[in-house]
From TrEMBL:
GO molecular function: magnesium ion binding; O-methyltransferase activity; S-adenosylmethionine-dependent methyltransferase activity; tRNA (uridine) methyltransferase activity
Pfam (any one): Methyltransf_3
Binding site for Mg(2+): 133, 159-160
InterPro entries given in the database record: Cation-dep_OMT, SAM-dependent_MTases_sf, SAM_O-MeTrfase, TrmR_methyltr
Catalyzed reactions: 5-hydroxyuridine(34) in tRNA + S-adenosyl-L-methionine = 5-methoxyuridine(34) in tRNA + S-adenosyl-L-homocysteine + H(+)
Originating organism: Clostridium sulfidigenes
Binding site for S-adenosyl-L-methionine: 39, 69, 87, 133
EC nos: 2.1.1.-
Role of this protein: Catalyzes the methylation of 5-hydroxyuridine (ho5U) to form 5-methoxyuridine (mo5U) at position 34 in tRNAs.
Family note: Belongs to the class I-like SAM-binding methyltransferase superfamily. Cation-dependent O-methyltransferase family.
Listed name of the protein: tRNA 5-hydroxyuridine methyltransferase
């Protein structure tokens, strides 16, 4: 069990999505054979969905690995979309560069090699979609930079926010993961309680949080009942 959803549910939903084809399938096979963590199938589908919905022009990704999700996002996007993706592992950068070139997407996807926090500190662009998928224990440090660079109607998608269920249930806790889990809980509190942000968490894959800015003038309280609104 994933600690987040039931196996039968995961199997059923993955069956509906079906198998990937071409380069994405090759990368999925490579990732499995070489134990490289890439987005789960349902997460990949959600990202494609959000790209169709929001039509971002500029995307920022934290955590490239072999380039799977950046290629997926590029293929799901319109032609003029650019993606900047950050990865600190030199070996991954080499593999991702090759994969992106092979996919013919090297004009659209640029990899910045380095630690996310250091790279983010030096970036000053505006992004419509930010996909956070690196350094689970450091999301809280990445967040202020992501908010600073998020366009007005932009969205931050953070993966692994429930971390095999451990973030929500201490019975699932693995001792050596305590620090990551504590830090992820802090991140979840921040994105859920910040009055300027609106976050929803989807308990699928490894847990995905979707965060946008609240509309100006929006009532940030809990949804008022019709009685409170004086309509009873
Ligand atoms: C889960 S993988 C990314 C998977 C990728 N988004 C995909 O789905 O195809 C996370 C990657 O982030 C990298 N990483 C972890 N912490 C990092 C950090 N602080 N700065 C830059 N990269 C980091 C790891 O080396 C790893 O390749």
């Amino acid at each position: 069990m994933s600690g987040i959803t039931y196996d039968y549910m995961e199997k059923y939903l993955r069956g509906l999505i079906g198998d990937s084809k071409g380069m994405l399938k090759e990368l999925e096979d490579f990732a499995e054979e070489n134990a490289v963590p890439i987005v789960q199938k349902e997460t990949a589908r959600l990202i494609e969905f959000m790209i169709n919905l929001k039509k971002p022009k500029k995307i920022l990704e934290l955590g490239t690995a072999i380039g799977y999700s950046s290629i997926l996002m590029s293929l799901a996007s319109e032609n003029n979309v650019t993606i900047t993706t950050i990865e600190r592992d030199e070996k991954m950068v080499t593999i991702a560069t090759e994969n992106i070139k092979k996919a013919g997407l090297d004009e659209k996807i640029s990899i910045i090699q380095g630690d996310c926090l250091e790279v983010l500190e030096g970036l000053d662009d505006e992004y419509d979609l930010i996909f956070m998928d690196a350094g689970k224990g450091h999301y809280s440090e990445f967040l202020p930079h992501c908010i600073r660079m998020l366009s007005k109607d932009g969205i931050i998608i953070s993966d692994n926010v429930l971390f095999r269920g451990m973030v929500a249930c201490k019975d699932l806790m693995i001792r050596r993961k305590i620090t990551i889990v504590k830090r992820m809980k802090k991140y979840m509190e921040t994105i859920s309680k910040d009055e300027n942000l609106l976050t929803t968490v989807i308990p699928m894959g490894d847990g995905i949080a979707l965060t946008v800015r609240r509309n100006e003038n929006e009532n940030t309280g809990t949804i008022s009942s019709s009685r409170e609104l004086g309509e009873a």
